[in-house]
Design a protein that fits this description.
The protein starts with 8 loop residues before the first helix and ends with a strand. It is 20% helix and 27% strand. It has one domain. It is built from three helices and seven strands. The chain binds zinc ion (ZN). Zinc ion (ZN) binds next to loops.
């Protein structure tokens, strides 16, 4: 099966050529204490739990260029309060699991920078 047929591809495709850095997940607002991998929707959070990750690859994208993620729509539909991460100077952070990063790195031309 090619990666383009992988179910995560449609989710993560919009991050093509994005530049990531490896970082520890930090929730930016009390309204949303967790986030999801852009590819597989697996969870990042400050709190501990099964299958919750605390470290991953993150990229900042201008907020206006990104539509509301599907999982936010779903959270809202389920009555959960989950707003997109507040922008930092108009940017929003997008998190990706290491596994998804590795899988799609070549195909989508992900770039990786080291810590400043
Ligand atoms: Zn993922």
């Amino acid at each position: 099966m090619s990666l383009k047929e992988d179910w995560r591809y449609a989710n993560i495709e919009y991050l093509e050529k994005a530049t990531f850095r490896l970082d520890t997940y930090t929730a930016l607002s009390p309204e949303c204490d967790h986030d999801h991998c852009s590819g597989c929707w697996a969870e990042f959070a400050n709190f501990d739990g099964p299958e919750i990750l605390h470290e991953g690859y993150v990229t900042a994208i201008p907020s206006k260029e990104t539509p509301e993620p599907e999982f936010i729509t779903q959270c809202t539909a389920q009555g959960m309060t989950c707003v997109p991460q507040p922008g930092v100077d108009g940017y929003q952070l997008h998190w990706v699991y290491p596994e998804c990063f590795d899988d799609f790195r070549e195909l989508l031309g992900f770039k990786l920078v080291s810590h400043a």
